[in-house]
Each structure stands twice: as C-alpha cells, then as structure tokens.
UniProtKB/TrEMBL annotation:
Signal peptide feature range: none
Residue ranges annotated for the ABC transporter domain, each copy included: 5-230
Keywords: ATP-binding, Nucleotide-binding, Transport
UniProt GO molecular function: ATP binding; ATP hydrolysis activity
PROSITE patterns membership: ABC_TRANSPORTER_2
Taxonomy, superkingdom: Bacteria
Protein name (Swiss-Prot/TrEMBL): ABC-2 type transport system ATP-binding protein
UniProt-listed Gene3D superfamilies: P-loop containing nucleotide triphosphate hydrolases
InterPro entries for this protein: AAA+_ATPase, ABC_transporter-like_ATP-bd, ABC_Transporter_VariousFunc, P-loop_NTPase
Length: 292
C-alpha cells in the first residue's frame, strides 16, 4: 500500500506540555483514529502536519513530500476540517466559497454544488447563523470539492447530536471506501471510531501509548470479570488494570489468550470498546498502578 502520511520522531515543547517522539504512518484508502483525552497532544500533532506550528524536532512527509518545503503543494491535496472552523463569521456561504475556491487549482464547482444540495446547506445564510453540525458539513464540502487525497479532521463530531454525528460518519465511510481516500480523524468520542476505523493511535500526555489495527487491538484485549478469589499475585502481568470489590473483579487484559489458560472457565470475557481500552490505559499511566 502507498504511504500517504509519515511522521517520524515529532517533538514540540511548551512551558507546560511536550509532544514526545510521535511516530505515525497512514496508508492510502484507510481511516485512522487518533484518540486521546483533551490536552493529550492531538491538535498539536495535527497543527504540525499542517505546518501551522513549527516542531522542535522530527520530520513529516505527505505523499512523499516534505511538509515544510512543499507546503503549498501539499495544502492543495488536503481536505481539512478543524474544530474551530476558520471561516469568516459575517460572510454568507456563497461569499465564502467565492473567496476560497480560487485558492485551489483543482477546484470542482460541480462537486461543490452537489454536496451543498446533498447536505442541505443554505448558501445565502451567514456562517455565524449555522449550527455546529452545519458548520462541520460546510467544512466537509470544501474538503470534498478540490480532489483532496488526505482528509484531516480535528474533533469533527464533538458537540454534535447523535443523528448528525451518525450522518457525518456515513459521509466519512463513503470517502474512504468508495473514493479510496485517506482519513486521519482526531477525536475523544471513541464510539464513532468503533464503527469505521481501520487503525488506531492512542495518545496520552504527549506520547503514543498504543497503536495498531483496530480489530487486532480489540482482539488482543478483553474485559475480564470473575471471582476475586481466583486472582493470584502472579496474574498482575496479564492486566492493564483491574478493579476489585466484594462482588468480584473487573479488569482489562492485553493478553487474552494467555490469561484464558490460567483463570477458571467460569471467568467472563467481553469484547472491549475503544473507550474501555483507552480509559484503562489512561488510568494506568496516570497512577502507575494496575490493581486497585
């Protein structure tokens, strides 16, 4: 497969936060979820990819091109949907389009009109009067109207109601599966990625703490429930984290196959959600303890 985005040893430090040796690779025709709590480093990474901020160290290539040297050429190949929109609030949608469209040599006005109608966006309405869901759709219209190869989305579904979120998720599925485009989606709403992600990168406190194919990560892990009396001290190494009470234990294992060989058959194993996995890893990194 062709590598569309490659990040190597990306570092960026502020007075109260540092991004530490981020490595990431995206293949063509895939959707990668970039997940972590607010403040973990997702937006700093994305702004580095977009050349909005200058990293302290590391290298980023997009379609084989250096992100700094080939900045303008790369921008024409990106479909960007940022959390804060970056639109002029007092402009109508039609006026905003007339301002932005000439910036793209591959602008396709027929595609633009198609998506404006499909998303039922009122072109004569001012941007400040749009709902958050309509703003996200409008940003996607621009991304879809200039033949972008890589879509970079920063918290696109945050603050949206479930119906609008589901609609946007279906649009992203179409982008990847029908058009063979590549998507990097940064979010802390992990339930969206359960439906559509191919790959996952978990970031916490400026570091990637888990990465891989989504299905492989979920298959490797399991939510385990059972009798606390069945737990021996040697079993700690099988768990990312575990909670014990008078009624039993519940924990997350990162080695389901090995654990099944040592725990009783009556122990229950459940498929974890992405959120389950993320929360257990965050708790472990926060307090350094696996058992509580």
């Amino acid at each position: 497969m062709d590598t569309v985005l490659e990040i190597r040893n990306l570092c960026k430090s502020y007075h109260d936060f540092s991004l530490q040796n981020i490595n990431m690779s995206l293949e063509k025709g895939t959707l990668t979820g970039f997940v972590g709590p607010n403040g973990a480093g997702k937006t700093t990474t994305i702004k580095s990819i977009l050349n909005i901020i200058k990293p302290d160290d590391g290298k980023i290539t997009v379609m084989g091109m250096d992100s700094i040297i080939n900045d303008l050429e790369i921008k024409s190949l990106l479909g960007i949907v940022l959390d804060d929109g970056h639109f002029y609030e007092d402009m109508t949608l039609k006026k905003m389009k007339s301002l932005i469209a000439p910036m793209y040599p591959t602008w396709n006005d027929r595609a633009y009109q198609t998506y404006i109608k499909k998303f039922e966006l009122p072109e004569n309405k001012k941007i400040k009067d749009l709902s958050r869901g309509m703003r996200m759709k409008y940003a996607l219209v621009f991304a879809l109207s200039h033949d972008a190869e890589l879509f970079i989305l920063d918290e696109p579904t945050s603050g949206l109601d479930p119906l609008v979120r589901n609609e946007l998720i279906e649009i992203l599925k179409d982008i990847v599966f029908e058009d063979n485009k590549t998507v990097l989606m940064s979010t802390h709403i992990t339930s969206d990625l359960d439906k559509i992600a191919d790959y996952l990168f978990f970031i916490f406190d400026g570091k990637i703490i888990l990465q891989g194919q989504k299905d492989e990560i979920k298959d490797q892990h399991a939510i385990v429930k059972g009798d606390t009396g069945a737990l021996l001290p040697d079993y700690e190494s099988y768990f990312v984290g575990i909670n014990k009470s008078a009624y039993g234990f519940e924990g997350l294992t990162d080695n389901k196959a090995a654990l099944k060989k040592v725990l009783p058959d009556k122990t229950a194993y459940e498929v974890p959600s992405i959120e389950d996995i993320m929360l257990y890893y965050i708790r472990r990194h926060n307090n350094g303890l696996k058992f509580s």
